[in-house]
Amino acid sequence: MRALLLYLARREGFKDFALKFPVLQRTAWRFVAGETLDDAVRAVKEVNGLKMSGTLDLLGENTLSLEDARNATREIVGILDRIHAEKIACNVSVKLTQLGLALETENCLSNLSAIVRHARDRQNFVRVDMEDSAFTQKTIDIVRQVHREMDNVGAVIQAYLYRSENDVRLLLEDGIRIRLCKGAYLEPPSVAFRKKRDTDANFVRLMKLMLESGLYHAIATHDEAMIDATAEFAASKRILRDGFEFQMLYGVRRDLQQRLARDGYKVRVYIPYGRRWYPYFMRRLAERPANIVFILRNFLRG
Predict the structure, then answer these.
(1) Residue pLDDT, tens place only, 204-221
(2) Which of 179, 268, 283, 284 is labelled catalytic?
(3) Over 80: is that where the pLDDT of 300 sits?
(4) Residue 223 a catalytic site member
(5) Comparing C-alpha atoms, which of 101, 167, 173, 91 is closest to residue 131?
(6) 30-75, pLDDT tens digit by residue?
(7) Which of 4, 13, 29, 129 is 20 to 30 A (C-alpha) from 45?
């Protein structure tokens, strides 16, 4: 089922069929703040009211033209201006294929540099999301290049990839802040762990490397075993609760998000929005089979 959902996530044409079923879009709004920036800002303010920060993601990956990439760049710059004007606790997350990575590397580099430079002028931070393994090396190369000039940019590492320990060590040498997650794309066994226990073991190993570096990193997970392992390791090394942050997805385990915030941990909520919500939504379904049951129940009722 997971493989099927991840396959469908890459098929934008299936979205038109899916939208014939209102229950699917209603379920999507559990994970997506809405289609407009106003929707997203409202979600950030709600999160801020619960003593958590946000990171905004303008949905839309794999742009088809350089003009689309330039438009996405301008829109993300506008998001940074809105964050600054509203004085909300929030940064931005971007995907490099949205900025033209699959089309032209130099153009993508220019677009990301413009965003990071604008964020620096607004005293803000840009997190570069990691996509599927075909883009891992280029993404790391571009982040490192931009970071040499501006340090308000960070990377994402996926624990299910075999290569990730080497990537973490390289990024730490450069002083680059990392978000660690498990990984949500369908990858072949030649590049990624297939078993959860192997991914979990690597996650813990990478988490320890990161936290011991002294940099401010993000641990992105809803897995309570991984959260407990992080909290226990931080305590054992006398790392303060505000010396790193947990990150979680909008609409997922809000109870856990709020409990961690009440316990004194820094929590940041990943808040996606935009008209191109379909691929993101399908990846969330693939991660949580319980959401499929929810859809089927509502479909049968109505």
Answers:
(1) 999 999 999 999 999 999
(2) 179
(3) no
(4) no
(5) 101
(6) 899 999 999 999 999 999 999 999 999 999 988 999 999 999 999 9
(7) 129
CA atoms of 58 and 95, how far apart (whole Å):
9
On whether the CB atoms of residues 53 and 274 are closer than 8 A, the answer is no
Structure tokens at 274: 């935009």
Distance, in Å, from the CA atom of 261 to the CA atom of 135, rounded to the nearest integer, reads 34
Instruction: Reply yes or no on whether the pLDDT at 179 is more than 80.
Output: yes
Average pLDDT over residues 167-178: 99
Among candidate residues 57, 127, 129, 200, the one labeled active-site is 129
Buried b (16+ CB within 10 A) or exposed e, 214-231: ebbbbbbbbeeebbebbb
- Position 288 scores a pLDDT of 61
To the nearest 10°, the Cα dihedral for 10, 11, 14, 15? 60
Domain assignments of the chain as residue spans, ordered by start: 33-276
What the block records as the tokens of 56 is 């905004």
Catalytic site residue 167?
no
**76: confidence class by pLDDT, cuts 50, 70, 90:** very high
